[in-house]
Specification:
single chain, 70 residues, alpha/beta, 3-stranded mixed sheet, 1 helix, 23% strand
């Protein structure tokens, strides 16, 4: 069953991050080294370079938290 059967999705490209990282509060560890990672809670975690790239697009509805390595 569709949530909104009368709405049409705009064209998009699906993005699946391959990296993994563990996040606790404002700290991270066990980073796989990828620029785009998912935490065990499904949070997108990116490097500074990746964030600079994403800022070229509309990310005004994103919560951004700076993490430090624990």
């Amino acid at each position: 069953m569709e949530l909104y059967p009368d709405k049409e999705l705009p064209s998009f490209t699906r993005f699946i991050p391959l990296g993994k990282v563990e996040v606790e509060g404002e700290h991270f560890n066990n980073w796989s080294g990828h620029h785009f990672c998912l935490s065990s809670r499904g949070e997108l975690v990116v490097t500074k370079n990746a964030l600079d790239f994403l800022k070229k697009f509309s990310i005004k509805y994103c919560d951004i938290t700076k993490l430090t390595q624990s």
